[in-house]
């Protein structure tokens, strides 16, 4: 992995640490990128009931069975996954960083994950979706259960085993957890689902639901940026961690995650829906994986083009974030004018 320098103040402790007395002073800020992301996250604060989902009910009724099934499948995956991310942050990230600005951002991110969970609950409450069946799918559908099992395996390393963050192997476990949650779950698997969710609006369906997803995407783009910056900072400050063997392991984690997502997408769309099928989604997944690999310092593995260029461009709501290339400002509280 190529380590991209991420600024840290001279003479201060590194970003990793578990001392309660550490990280009690915010200023001077050691990691400006974390503070900037916190400020942006606060400016982006929103609430699910600001979207009038009831206006989409007529669309839901006229959708095909396969389209309604796809939406239910997405809710089955997203709802528990948002809570799983919160556990990963609370038990696998927050206790092991000592910079106050990182704690501030992580606290806001945890609130956002809770807000996303309530957003998907709002969808389940509004549309005539079988909640019991939706809740059961993340256990009953093998491809969905495999993804959850993958994530749980990494969080258990952080919660049920002794993690000594002062050792090289402890630091590697910390990085593994960040890759599993911030890069794979939030940066590949979630974006794959977002593309499917937003594809309905491309066909003039579920436009308000699409706005809700827009706001979630904007939050997740900041989560992803924070996670990758944190990975790169840990590697910069602890160069002994990034051996060639460890880099190969991280790269393989991402490739294995792509294979799991491809199987999941065939279950998500077994018959395809208008303008969308599993092969199309999986090309997008491979494109995402190449982006994540590049951001971590690897070269692209798949070399595929983005089949969903509309995902990277602002549409009529002007709310989508083009990953790290633009920060959305269409919905901000206390937005500052420079």
UniProtKB/TrEMBL annotation:
Cofactor note: Binds 2 iron ions per subunit.
Membrane-spanning segments: 178-200
Presence of the UniProt keyword ATP-binding in the record: no
Catalysed transformations (reactions): a 2'-deoxyribonucleoside 5'-diphosphate + [thioredoxin]-disulfide + H2O = a ribonucleoside 5'-diphosphate + [thioredoxin]-dithiol
Gene3D superfamilies: Ribonucleotide Reductase, subunit A
Binding site for Fe cation 2: 113, 186, 220, 223
CDD domains: RNRR2
Entry superkingdom: Bacteria
Cofactor(s) listed: Fe cation
EC number: 1.17.4.1
Entry binding sites for Fe cation 1: 82, 113, 116
Pfam families on file: Ribonuc_red_sm (PF00268)
InterPro entries linked: Ferritin-like_SF, RNR-like, RNR_small, RNR_small_fam
GO BP annotation list: deoxyribonucleotide biosynthetic process
Complex formation: Tetramer of two alpha and two beta subunits.
Family from the record: Belongs to the ribonucleoside diphosphate reductase small chain family.
Protein name, per record: Ribonucleoside-diphosphate reductase subunit beta
Annotated source species: Nocardioides zeae
């Amino acid at each position: 992995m190529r380590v991209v320098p991420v600024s840290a103040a001279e003479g201060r402790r590194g970003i990793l640490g578990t001392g309660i007395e550490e990280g009690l002073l915010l200023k001077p800020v050691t990691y400006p990128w974390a503070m900037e992301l916190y400020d942006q996250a606060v400016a982006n604060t929103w609430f699910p009931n600001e979207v009038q989902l009831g206006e989409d009910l007529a669309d839901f009724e006229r959708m095909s069975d396969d389209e309604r099934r796809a939406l239910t499948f997405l809710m089955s995956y997203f709802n528990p996954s948002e809570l799983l991310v919160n556990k990963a942050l609370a038990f696998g990230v927050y206790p092991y960083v000592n910079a106050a600005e990182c704690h501030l951002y992580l606290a806001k991110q945890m609130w956002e994950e809770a807000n996303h969970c309530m957003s998907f609950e709002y969808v389940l409450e509004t549309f005539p979706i079988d909640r019991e069946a939706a809740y059961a799918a993340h256990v009953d559908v093998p491809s969905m259960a495999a993804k959850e099992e993958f994530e749980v395996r990494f969080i258990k390393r952080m919660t049920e085993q002794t993690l000594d963050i002062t050792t090289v192997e402890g630091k590697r476990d910390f990085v593994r957890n960040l890759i599993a949650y911030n890069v794979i779950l939030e940066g590949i698997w979630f974006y794959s689902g977002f593309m499917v969710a937003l594809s309905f609006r491309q066909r003039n369906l579920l436009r308000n639901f699409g706005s809700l997803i827009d706001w979630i995407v904007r939050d997740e783009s900041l989560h992803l940026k924070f996670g990758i910056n944190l990975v790169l900072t840990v590697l910069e400050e602890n160069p002994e961690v990034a051996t060639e063997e460890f880099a190969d392991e991280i790269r393989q984690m991402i490739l294995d995650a792509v294979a799991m997502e491809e199987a999941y997408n065939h279950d998500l769309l077994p018959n395809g829906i208008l303008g969308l099928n599993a092969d199309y989604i999986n090309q997008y997944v491979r494109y995402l994986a190449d982006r994540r690999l590049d951001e971590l310092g690897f070269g692209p593995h798949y070399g595929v083009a983005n089949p969903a260029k509309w995902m990277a461009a602002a549409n009529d709501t002007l709310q989508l974030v083009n990953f790290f290339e633009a920060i959305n400002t269409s919905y901000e509280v206390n937005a500052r004018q420079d």
